[in-house]
Amino acid sequence: MTLIALSPGAANVFDGDAPDRVCRQPTRAELHAYPSPTPARGRALVYAGGGYLQLMHDKEGVAIARWLNTLGLDAYVLVHRLPGQAGQPFDIALRDGLLALDHLATLPPLPLLHVGLSSGGHLAGVLACQPHVLSAAGAVIAYAPLNANHRDHKAPAGKPDYPPPEKQAFYDAWPIGITTEPHGLPRCPVFLAYALHDPVVPVQHALNLLTAAQQHGLDVEAHVFPQAGHGFALRALAGTHDQWPALAARWVDLQLKRSPTG
Questions:
Q1: CB neighbours (10 Å) of residue 32?
Q2: Are the C-beta atoms of residues 93 and 52 closer than 8 Å to each other?
Q3: pLDDT beneath 70, residues of the chain
Q4: Residue-level pLDDT at 133
Q5: Are 64 and 120 in contact (CB under 8 A)?
Q6: b/e map of 113-150 (b: 16 or more CB within 10 Å)?
Q7: What distances in angstroms separate CA 44 from CA 36, 115, 139, 252, 260, one per listed residue?
Q8: What pLDDT shows up at residue 260?
Q9: Domains in the chain, CATH or no CATH each
Q10: 10-29 pLDDT per residue, tens
């Protein structure tokens, strides 16, 4: 692993031991680079979840990066700062994501994928909507709070706003896949993996994006699994969702072949 600092500040500290390290108070934006053991077919920017309150660095970052390595991708896990941290703007996660994309833009061209789980999937969706990332090959998003945390689109209805206020403000600014919010429509193909009965991230998040895809001609492939719970990642796969990595791998392969830089 190679560590790449993207902003000033002390190196990030992780709580716990591998493979369960968590970053609770990110001090700077970093990329943790995991190169493919074979000549890379593309690269992926990986966003770990944690509800924008912490980062599940190993479970939803490093483990995903190493899986992407097996698909022939160079993988970069983003450690980003969190909304509500002292002195940080509400959209600091987006700003750190843009720093990561600026760094990747200095590398030789390869197809780019955004890959995010849980709140990291929301951030992947946000980055996939940015005007200057039109060349992204796709976004892989699992059990992410894409849109139904927005105060006007809550599921279930009446759900309280999220603390801290900066976190709620970020969800309100970036509902991904709401047809009346065109700035939040992804500019690349999207793969979704969701749990049908997830109480933490209701499936309405995926359904809203599918409705927007129908109305705006977006390229979205969605898989909804009845036995899955929230946070399945690559570990809790005792159900039909044990197939989601293979389904995503097939989809990634197709996007890489379609990409003009592939």
A1: 19
A2: yes
A3: 133-134, 261-262
A4: 53
A5: no
A6: bbbbbbbbbbbbbbbbbbeebeebbbbbbbbbbbbbbb
A7: 11, 7, 9, 10, 16
A8: 77
A9: 2-258 (3.40.50.1820)
A10: 999 999 999 999 999 999 99
